[in-house]
Design a protein that fits this description.
- It is a single chain.
- The chain is of the alpha/beta class and 123 residues long.
- It has a single domain (5-121), classed as 3-Layer(aba) Sandwich (Rossmann fold), CATH 3.40.50.1400.
- The chain contains 4 helices and 4 strands.
- The chain has a 4-stranded parallel beta sheet, sandwiched between helices.
- The radius of gyration is 15 Å and the shape is globular.
- 20% of the residues are buried.
- This is CbiX/SirB N-terminal domain-containing protein.
- Pfam families: CbiX.
- InterPro entries: CbiX-like, Sirohydro_Cobaltochel/CbiX.
- Keywords: Lyase, Metal-binding.
Amino acid sequence: MANKSALILFAHGARDPRWATPFQRLQAMTQASLPDVTVALAFLEFMTPSLPELAAQLVADGCENITLAPVFLGQGGHVLRDLPVLAEEIRAAHPGLQFKTVSAVGEDEAVLKAIRDYCLKLL
């Protein structure tokens, strides 16, 4: 792996594969903006790869530093309860890995303003 750092976009997942399309677009757009970082997409359920699977693959490929961005609108149960358990599992499995999580994207003021601006254009 040429990139020692990775950004994981972490989404919920769904049974319908079409649900992942905007997240795949986000991953591609982000990767294009960060050519020196591996940008990857992981899912909580229903879709692959799972977060632990992806983290293990990135570490096996030589990644030393992972930042995880939950692509959720809010800090609901999955982000507050499920994500910390998964993060601890990853830290325990890969003790040399620098692994940090950031708040859900919907908690960011700029994201909320972008959604507001989209809604304002509708009227």
